[in-house]
UniProtKB/TrEMBL annotation:
Protein name: Germin-like protein
GO molecular function, one term: manganese ion binding
Positions annotated to bind Mn(2+): 98, 100, 144
Keywords assigned: Apoplast, Manganese, Metal-binding, Secreted, Signal
Signal peptide range in chain numbering: 1-23
Family: Belongs to the germin family.
Taxonomic superkingdom: Eukaryota
């Protein structure tokens, strides 16, 4: 019995250690990361230059547009714990509630205004209306939203993350586009199946049949 207890404890400790390690980029034990199969002596300044942001980012009316430089687009970021996005919000553009499991986010305002907010685990809202030149920080893994609700000017911002691969979980898709049984959603939100169907409609993939 005692050995089973110890095994369980060891398993829990291991699980905690592994998930803790995954919460941020692994430590780099050299100056920078060299992609597998690449001869380090062949690397030059181009490897550390990302040109994907040239021309900025365009936005359809009422929408948001983005360009990103995470470790996927810019391999030199591997192990450095940083990444960078350019975002553009047309008037009426909304970034729905979402979270980044692996990175805190700094938002720097280049142009326009932005309505932002995040919520803590007590459901307290920390909102703000950002103006050109402002900096706002969203702590890692907290749900937040952003919108250009003001006027007719495009809003341009930079996101800087404390991870080379911050990830993103968008709540509308996560809750209503993942085929959670409707009975669970109805009880969780205290609404009818009709309401759940409406919320699922934009994401419905017809994979589990009718469970309403
Ligand atoms: C924050 O949200 C509250 C409630 O919606 C609103 O009254 C207030 O004006 C907002 N504050 C800022 C700075 O946007
Ligand atoms: C999904 O189900 C809806 C409702 O039954 C149907 O109208 C639609 O054609 C289906 N879509 C696909 C891709 O099967």
């Amino acid at each position: 019995m005692a050995s089973i207890g110890h095994a369980t404890l060891l398993f829990c400790v291991l699980l905690f250690t592994v998930s803790g390690a995954r919460a941020s980029d692994p430590e780099l034990t050299k100056e920078f990361s060299v992609p597998p199969g690449v001869d380090a002596s062949q690397l030059n300044g181009n490897y550390f230059t990302y040109t994907g942001f040239r021309g900025g980012v365009s936005t359809a009316p009422g929408e948001t547009g983005s360009k990103k430089a995470t470790v996927t687009e810019f391999p030199a970021l591997d192990g450095l714990g940083i990444s960078f996005f350019l975002m553009s919000f047309a008037p009426g553009g909304v970034l729905p509630p979402h979270l980044h499991p692996r990175g805190s986010k700094l938002i720097y305002m280049i142009q326009g205004t932005l309505t932002v907010g995040f919520m803590d685990s007590n459901h307290k809202l920390y909102n703000s209306t950002l103006e050109e030149g402002d900096l706002y920080v969203v702590p890692r893994a907290l749900v937040h939203y952003m919108a250009n609700l003001d006027g007719d000017k495009v809003t341009k911002v930079i996101f800087a993350f404390s991870s080379s691969n911050p990830g993103s979980i968008r709540l509308p898709e996560n809750l209503f586009g993942s085929n959670i049984p409707a009975k669970v959603l109805k009880k969780s939100f205290g609404v009818s199946g009709k309401v759940i169907e409406e919320l699922e409609a934009p994401f419905y993939k017809n994979t589990t049949g009718d469970y309403h």
